[in-house]
Structures are given as structure tokens and as C-alpha cells.
């Protein structure tokens, strides 16, 4: 199934600032290559577009994401809970 994820998170971490992407606006799409067994080819997220390797002490404070699977439905996940159905 192909869909779209839209969302945000707020986190606290330490690292050396070294941006390799725009600091405002749309920074593009990210495909970390995950499969149904929760195995991902890219083992680090977009945070590395802004910080050097060695980012430490990642503490997610809050997050909210919505996955729109088109005709298969919508799944919402947040720090307050998860709900939805993308099984069609």
C-alpha cells in the first residue's frame, strides 16, 4: 500500500549542528525502507540531515502523525494514543 505520512514531533537531544537540508519550509520526503517485519534499511531518521553522527540523549516529548492510506483508510498515532484503520 502506498500512502502519505504527515506529522510532527518535539524532542530534546544533543549533537553538533551541521545542517545539510533547508532550515525552514518543506525539507522533502524520507523513505527509510521499512518492511512489514519492522526492519528498515536506513537505520537513522531525518535528524541526521541537521546534526552530525553521534546525536545523543533523544527524548521525545510529544508527537502526532497521520498516515493516509487513501482507499485503505487513515491511521493516527500520537503521544496521546493511536487509532484508525488502514486495512481497507
Task: Write up this protein.
With 88 residues, the protein is an all-beta fold. It has no helices and four strands. The chain has strands at 4-14, 56-68, 74-78, 81-84. The model has no long low-confidence stretch (mean pLDDT 80).
Strand and helix map with partners:
Blueprint: E1 4-14, E2 56-68, E3 74-78, E4 81-84
Antiparallel strand pairs: 1-2, 2-3, 3-4
Mean pLDDT rating: 80
Strand proportion: 35-45%
Radius of gyration over all CA atoms, rounded: 15 Å
Strand segment count: 4
Tell me the strand order in the biggest sheet.
Answer: 1-2-3-4
Give helix % range.
Answer: under 10%
Low-pLDDT stretches are none
Number of helices, where a helix is a run of at least 4 consecutive DSSP H or I residues: 0
Query: Secondary-structure element sequence?
Result: EEEE
Helix-strand makeup class: mainly beta
What does the overall shape look like? globular
Major β-sheet annotation? 4 strands, antiparallel
What's this model, at a glance?
By secondary structure, the protein is mainly β. It has strands spanning 4-14, 56-68, 74-78, 81-84. It is 0% helix and 38% strand.
Amino acid at each position: 500500500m502506498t500512502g502519505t505520512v504527515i506529522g510532527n514531533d518535539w524532542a530534546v537531544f544533543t549533537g553538533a549542528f551541521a545542517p545539510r537540508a533547508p532550515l525552514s519550509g518543506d525539507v522533502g520526503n524520507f523513505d527509510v525502507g521499512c518492511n512489514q517485519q519492522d526492519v528498515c534499511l536506513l537505520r537513522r531518521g531525518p535528524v541526521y540531515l541537521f546534526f552530525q553522527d553521534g546525536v545523543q540523549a533523544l527524548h521525545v516529548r510529544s508527537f502526532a502523525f497521520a498516515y493516509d492510506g487513501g482507499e485503505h483508510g487513515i491511521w493516527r498515532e500520537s503521544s496521546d494514543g493511536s487509532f484508525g484503520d488502514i486495512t481497507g
